[in-house]
Structure formats: C-alpha cells, structure tokens
Amino acid sequence: MHELALMGDILNLVEKDAKQRGFDSVTGITLLVGILSNAMPDALGMAFDMYKAQRMTMLTEDAALEMLIEEARASCPHCQTTYTPTHRIAICPDCSLPGGQLTTGQSFQVKSYEGS
Amino acid sequence: MNITLNEEVLKDNNTAAAYNRDHFRNSGTLVINVMSSPGAGKTTLLEATVRELSNRYRIGVIEGDLATEMDADRIRAVGAQAVQINTHGGCHLDARMVAKTLPEFQMDELDLLFIENVGNLVCPSGYDLGQHHKIAVLSIPEGNDKIPKYPTMFMRTELVLLNKIDLLPYLDFSVEQALKDLEAIQPKSALMPISARTNEGMEQWYAWIDNAYRAMKEA
User: Fold this and answer.
1) What CATH number is attached to the domain comprising A59?
2) Using one digit for the tens of pLDDT, what is the confidence trace for B52-68?
3) For a tag site, which of A16, A73, B168, B187 has the least CB within 10 Å?
4) Are B152 and A2 a contacting pair at CB < 8 A?
5) How many domains is chain A partitioned into structurally?
6) pLDDT tens-digit series, residues B113-130
7) Between β-strands B30-36 and B112-116, what pairing exists: parallel, antiparallel or unpaired?
8) pLDDT by residue (tens digit) across B147-169?
9) pLDDT class for B89, splitting at 50, 70, 90?
10) Confidence label for A1 from pLDDT (cuts 50, 70 and 90)
11) What is chain B's alpha carbon radius of gyration, rounded to the nearest angstrom?
C-alpha cells in the first residue's frame, strides 16, 4: 500500500511541468496503470482525493483522475503464441511450456494532464 | 490546456537508481537487494553470511525497517558496517533513501553491500535501487501459496532462498510444488533450499555470491 507515496511522485511530476509553463492550476490527470504494476487504481483514487482535500497542491477542487488500465499480455518464445497471463504468468496456455515473456501490463505512467 | 507528459511515475526513483548504480560500478561493490515478507529470516541470513564471508569480503549492510535500529545492531554485532534506514510507515525502500545512506559508507572499501528491504512481498519489488541482483527469501512456515499469490515479487527476482528447511519435518510444505510454482512465474529464477539457522545448504548461497562477485569484476 504505497499509493499515497506514488501519488506524491505523480503530483511532483505534473506540478514541475505545470510551473515551467506558468500554469496556476491542474484540473485533471490521466495515468496509464498496468495491472501488474503493483499500484491499485482504487487506492490511487483515494490518494488523489486526499491530496485534493489538503489543498496544498495545484489540484483544483473538482480535479479529476482518469486511469487507463493496461491489461497484461505475454508471448511464448517456444510457439510464438501471445496470451493473457493469469496466475501462472510464464506458462503458455497452448504448449504448456514455461518461458512466456510479459509484453504489457507493467506500465505505470503519467500520460497527460489538464492545466491552466 | 491538455499537456502530454508520457513520463514514468517512478522517474525520480529511476534517476536515483542510476546514480546509485554509477556509484557501485565506480567502487566495484556487488550490491544485492534482499526482499521477503516480515519474519522470513533476512537478518538471520545476513548475520550468517557476514560471519562466513568476512574473511574474504569487506561487507556492508543497509537495513530498511519502519522503526528501530534493531537489525543494524544485529549486523554490527557480527562485525559488519550497517546503516539503518527508518521509513516511518513507508512499506519499501526507494533509490533516494539508499542514495542518502551511501556517504555513510566508505564505498571504495566495500566488496559487498546487502540492502535488506522492508519486510513486504508487494511494494519493494517495484523499486529499482540500482542493485546488481534482486533476490527473495521465502520461509517454510509461510506456506506454499506465497509464490502464486505474490507474482510480482517472484517474477522480478532471480533467486529465491527457501529458508528454514530445518522445519520441513514439522510443516506441510512441498519443495517440489514450490519449484513448479516458481517455474510458472519466472522460469529464470532459481530456488535454493537453505537454513540460515543450522547452515544447511548455505554453501550454495555462498557459491552464488562468489560467482556473482566474479561476474561483476569481469564485466
């Protein structure tokens, strides 16, 4: 449960850019959150609301957090199948061999923000 | 106005990790990030390791805990330099915290640096500290379900020290099942059964360190 710290990092990144552009406020942030990134969307939402309530950031009262969820995908080096990994991430559902490599699902990025 | 950033959330951490990595390269120090749940035996493992390897390596340890200096004191008692980081509620170490401790060591005079992360099978796995190797300690009493239940930890580590095997006769833990589960999550990771308390299997761990140290020096 480190979403509060992560949200602090997110706001730092956004505010640094916003200040350079001479903005006074931030009304929205869009994140890309991979389901294997160890960040929980609900907890990120809660952290965002807590920062908003503190009124110590550039976030406006009605600022919105949008999260684009990146599903996990993996590809098998043995039979080249691509698949959605469940709990046995590295096991290919087609040939049953281990070695599957994740291609997506670990991203955690600030895509964009709305500032003025 | 909509501004596109496309920045990694952990950008600042990754910058600090790169700084740490440069430091470790310049000083020729092999750095191992040790992660596990609380009570898996990380500190006991490091105590035994310091006792065994102090005659051939100069060893330092960074201890991460929410509170107290207890772990650093245990490491000092067996003769290695230890610096304690208290995260005051934080569930993991990040690269900036590690960077801040480096001036407390004479890095040029360290061959090995172990970073004992905060006991937690979730958050620490997401933070690059600039280490050469990330390893996990899993102990027999925690049960067989931990590898499938915490995939991000076992997917991002290259060695699992299966500790407390002296308790195998008393508990329903299957080493064979753990091997299968690990292969299903990270086929490149190795499972090494050990007991840091009785020293059973510890020679494989010391050989692994020797190999990693040699590989770093030759790189």
Assistant:
1) 3.30.2320.80
2) 999 999 999 999 999 99
3) A16
4) no
5) 1
6) 999 999 999 999 999 999
7) parallel
8) 999 999 999 999 999 999 999 99
9) confident
10) low
11) 17
DSSP state of A76: -
Nearest to A89 among B5, B123, B155 (CB): B155
Tell me, what's the pLDDT at A86?
84
Q: What is the mean pLDDT of residues A7-12?
A: 96
Task: Please give the residue range of the domain that contains residue A19.
Answer: 3-115
- Taking contacts as CB-CB distances below 8 angstroms, the residues of chain B near A21 are 3
**Closest CA of chain B from A22, distance in Å:** 12
The residue of chain B nearest to residue A10, with distances taken between CA atoms, is: B9
**Residue B115 · residue B24 · CB < 8 Å:** no
Domain B11-213 has CATH 3.40.50.300: yes
Q: Choosing among B7, B117, B127, B146, which should be mutated to test the A contact, i.e. which has the most A CBs within 10 A?
A: B7
Q: How close is the nearest chain B Cα to the Cα of A9, in Å?
A: 6
* Residue A80 touches partner B, C-beta closer than 8 Å: no
Cα dihedral angle (B189, B191, B197, B199), rounded to 10 degrees?
Answer: -110
Residue A37 CA to residue B197 CA, distance in Å, equals 35
Spans of all domains in chain B: 11-213
Output the six-digit token pair for A75. 């590809």
